[in-house]
Amino acid sequence: xxxxxxxxxxxxxxxxxxxxxxxxxxxxxxxxxxxxxxxxxxxxxxxxxxxxxxxxxxxxxxxxxxxxxxxxxxxxxxxxxxxxxxxxxxxxxxxxxxxxxxxxxxxxxxxxxxxxxxxxxxxxxxxxxxxxxxxxxxxxxxxxxxxxxxxxxxxxxxxxxxxxxxxxxxxxxxxxxxxxxxxxxxxxxxxxxxxxxxxxxxxxxxxxxxxxxxxxxxxxxxxxxxxxxxxxxxxxxxxxxxxxxxxxxxxxxxxxxxxxxxxxxxxxxxxxxxxxxxxxxxxxxxxxxxxxxxxxxxxxxxxxxxxxxxxxxxxxxxxxxxxxxxxxxxxxxxxxxx
Amino acid sequence: xxxxxxxxxxxxxxxxxxxxxxxxxxxxxxxxxxxxxxxxxxxxxxxxxxxxxxxxxxxxxxxxxxxxxxxxxxxxxxxxxxxxxxxxxxxxxxxxxxxxxxxxxxxxxxxxxxxxxxxxxxxxxxxxxxxxxxxxxxxxxxxxxxxxxxxxxxxxxxxxxxxxxxxxxxxxxxxxxxxxxxxxxxxxxxxxxxxxxxxxxxxxxxxxxxxxxxxxxxxxxxxxxxxxxxxxxxxxxxxxxxxxxxxxxxxxxxxxxxxxxxxxxxxxxxxxxxxxxxxxxxxxxxxxxxxxxxxxxxxxxxxxxxxxxxxxxxxxxxxxxxxxxxxxxxxxxxxxxxxxxxxxxxxxxxxxxxxxxxxxxxxxxxxxxxxxxxxxxxxxxxxxxxxxxxxxxxxxxxxxxxxxxxxxxxxxxxxxxxxxxxxxxxxxxxxxxxxxxxxxxxxxxxxxxxxxxxxxxxxxxxxxxxxxxxxxxxxxxxxxxxxxxxxxxxxxxxxxxxxxxxxxxxxxxxxxxxxxxxxxxxxxxxxxxxxxxxxxxxxxxxxxxxxxxxxxxxxxxxxxxxxxxxxxxxxxxxxxxxxxxxxxxxxxxxxxxxxxxxxxxxxxxxxxxxxxxxxxxxxxxxxxx
Lengths: 338, 625
Ligand code: FES
Ligand code: FES
Prior knowledge:
The complex is a heterodimer of chains A (338) and B (625).
Chain A: E1 5-17, E2 25-34, E3 38-43, H1 52-64, E4 71-73, H2 92-119, E5 126-129, E6 132-135, E7 141-143, H3 144-153, E8 160-167, E9 185-197, E10 203-213, H4 220-240, E11 245-246, E12 249-250, E13 268-274, H5 296-308, H6 319-332
Parallel strand pairs in A: 3-4, 10-13
Antiparallel strand pairs in A: 1-9, 2-3, 2-8, 5-6, 6-7, 9-10, 11-12
Chain B: E1 3-10, E2 13-20, H1 25-32, E3 51-54, E4 57-60, E5 73-75, H2 77-80, H3 88-96, H4 105-118, H5 124-130, H6 142-155, H7 184-188, E6 204-210, E7 216-222, H8 224-228, E8 232-236, E9 261-262, E10 268-274, H9 277-286, E11 288-293, H10 300-304, E12 318-326, H11 329-335, E13 338-346, E14 358-363, E15 369-373, H12 378-388, E16 396-400, H13 416-426, E17 430-433, H14 436-442, E18 449-457, E19 463-475, H15 481-491, E20 500-509, H16 523-540, H17 545-552, H18 571-581, E21 614-616, E22 622-624
Parallel strand pairs in B: 1-5, 6-17, 15-16, 19-20
Antiparallel strand pairs in B: 1-2, 3-4, 3-5, 6-10, 7-9, 7-11, 8-10, 12-20, 13-18, 14-15, 14-17, 18-19, 21-22
Helix pairs in contact in B: 3-6, 15-16
Bound molecules: FE2/S2 (inorganic) cluster (2 copies).
One FE2/S2 (inorganic) cluster is lined by residues 40-43, 45-50, 60, 62 of chain B.
C-alpha cells in the first residue's frame, strides 16, 4: 500500500422509533381463505421496493396455513381497500403486518370452528400449515383446498374477516417534549473501515459491519437488503452527494451534476440481525427501513479520524474538505480536534 | 410533427412502423411498441434504466435517435425472457433478492447480460466495472452482484440450476424464512407497469410551467398564444381551484399552482393538457408571465431575523420549534469533569429515486375523480384532494401505482392536484411524467442542518448533560418539516440515558427548494452529531468508543428523553454483537489507524487504485472507466 493511503475504523450507534411519530397510528386489513386453499388479502399497501408484499404473503400464509405463493394481495385503492395509511416511517411491517396477522386470525377461526364441527374435535386442536389442515392428536388431516370446499358447500361459511392494528402513541408536551411518541423502538450500530488517500483526499469505504435489532425478522434476506441499500444511501450522504444551491438556483439539476454512489463506491456489508421481539404486538417484528442508514455516516467520519486524525464535522467529506483539514492540521501542528 | 417510417427487428420480430421523427429509440420502443420494460430514469445517459442491445451492443436508448435504429437488430428486456421463461440472469436476480423497487432492474439485467456475453468468466471486479454505468438507489448493489456471479457460475456449469430454487422451506412457520420475493419476476422481466408506463384511450399529456425566480410577485399571466396552439385542451392556474387551495404533509401551506407569488425556483404556476406531449410543451413555452422580483432568503439564520417573510400571513418564518427539557443542564455541567462543545452540519440531499414523478388522472364510471400515482400516502392525499376539489371524500379515489423508489420523496402531493384540475376540466384522462431535471428542481430534499452541541461527562464517561440545538432549512413550503424537527428532537441525543437534556430543533422557511421527508427523517442529522461527539469525548477520556456507548446505553426500564419508560432496550446486545462481528480491537479513538490489527479482513472489498477506478468526463462527473 502506498504511503499516502491510510486506513481506519470507526463505530457509531443509533436508535429509531417505529411507525408514525407522536400520533396514533392505525392500519386495517381484510383476509379471506379462498378456493383451492389460497388466500386473498386486501389492505392499503403497494410495494415501494422494501419487500412488503412478500412479508405480508409470509404473514398471511403463516397465519392461515396456506402456501406463501398462494396468497394474493389486492391493490392499494382508497375506494376499494381498507385504509392502512402511508408507506413510510418504517411502519409497513409493524402496522400492516400486524393488521394482516389479526385479520387472518379472524378468518382462520371461522374455518377452524367449521372443521371442529366436521371432525367433532375441539377447535383448539386444529392446526394448519403450508396447504394442510389437521387436528392434533387425531388422524384427521386434509388439504386446505378440500377443507375450504367443505366449509363453503356443507356449512355455508366463507372464512373472511377484517381487523385493525393500533399503535398507541401520544403527542409531545409543547413545553418539555414529554410524551409517548412510539411504542416500539429499534437499536443499531455499525463499524466502518475506510481508506483515505492523503494525496488526493479521496475516501473509499471498504467495509461495513452492521448490527440491527429488528424485533423479529420476517424475511432475513429482505432485512439484509434494506441494510445494504440504506448503507449505500448513507455513503452518498457521507462522501459525495450534495444538492447545491446558489441564490435559490440549483447547481445540481441533473444526474450529470448530482453524483450518486455507483457499483464502484459500495463497501462490502456484513450484517447481523438481532431479534428483541416487540412485547406489545402479535408478530414481535419492528422495522429496518430508515434505521438502517442512521449510524453509517458518523461511523465513516469516526473511521476517517482514526485513519488520518482529522474530524469532518460537515457532511459530505469530499476530497477538498479532507485536503483542507489535513492542511490545517499540519499548520496547527496538532493532530487532535481539527 | 413530422413522421418517418422505420424498418427494424425488435426481439426477433420484423417491424415496419411510422413513427415521429423526433423520437429517440426509447420513445419508439415505449410509445409505439408498448415495450415499457425499458425505463426513462434520466433521459441523459446517466442512469442505465433504458439499456437495450443494438446489433448486440449495449447502448442507452435515451441517447439514440430512433432514425439511427433503421435496419438494426434491437433486443430489449422483454426479449431476454418473460415471467414464464426467464433467462439465467433473470432467475438469479429473483433468487438473490436483487430487485427492490425494480425500476433500475430491467437496465441492470441488460447490463449483466452484456457483461456475461462479452466475458462469460467475468470476475467480481470486472462485473462491478462493467455495470458501473447503471445506477440503483435501493439495493446497495450487493445482491445484484451476487446475482450476476450466480448466473455466471450456472452458465459456466460450475453450479447447477438448482441454486435458483434454494429458498427456505420451513417445516413449521414462514416467519423468519427467506421465501421468494413475490414481486421479483414482474420486475426482472420488465413486465410491471409503473405510472409512466400506463396509457388510456383519449389520454392527454400534461406539461407544467415552473418558476425561474426564487421569490417574485406574479403581475400578469398571458395565455392568449398558448390557447391557440393546436391540440391544447385545457390550461389551469390557481384560479381554477374550486376548494381550499393548500396541501402539505404536516402544515397545509402549499397551493396546487402558485398563487400571487412564487417562493422557489421550480414551483408550478400553470399546467397545460394537450393531445400530444409536444403540443403541451409548445403551449407552455408560449405562455408569458410578468414578475416583480422580491428580496429573497437563502440562509436559515437570516430567516430567523424575520426581515423578509416567505409566507406573510404566518408573520414568521419559523415552521416549527420542538423543545425537549429534562432535568437541569446548567447545574449538571458544573459537576462535569469534561465539557465539550462543537458544531456539525449536513447538506441537502436529493432522493434520486430512479422513477421520476408520474401519474394518470381520470373521472371514473361513477363520476369519481381518480388519481393513479406512486404516492406514498394515498390516505392523506385523498383527504387533501377532497378539500382542494371541494368534493365529498368518496368522490375522490387514489390508486397507488408501483413505486420506483420513494424514500419519503413521494409523500408530497406536488403534482396530483394539477392532474385533478385538468381531468375535471377536460373530462379526459391526463398523464404527467416529470423529466429528471424537472423532478430534481421541484421536489423536496433532505433538510440541510446545523447543530450546536455541548456535552458534559464524568471522567468515567457518563454523560451528565447535553444541550443540542439544530437549525434546519425547510425551504419554501412546510412539507414534512414539522415532523422532521420532531423526530430529530426526540431521537437526537441518541440511545443513551441522559438525565439532563436541553434539546431544540427549529425548521424555517427560505426561498430554497423545499425540504421534506427523507428516509431517516431528521434523526440522521442529529444522531450524526451525537455519535461524533461521543468519539471526541472517548478520545479525551482515553476510552474505547464501544465502552463509552455501553456506559451510557439505555436499558429496559430507563426513561427516554421524552420521559417514556422503555419496555425493552437492545442497544447493549447490539453493541456486543457488533463488536464481535467486526472483530473490533479495543482502544481509544486517538487516530490509531496505523497501528490497528483488526483491519484488512476479507469482509472488506478491495480498495481501488486511484485513477484506475474513476475518470472525469468533460462535465466534472466521475464515471467508471
Ligand atoms: S441513461 Fe437513459 S434514461 Fe437514464
Ligand atoms: S431496485 Fe434499483 S433503483 Fe430500486
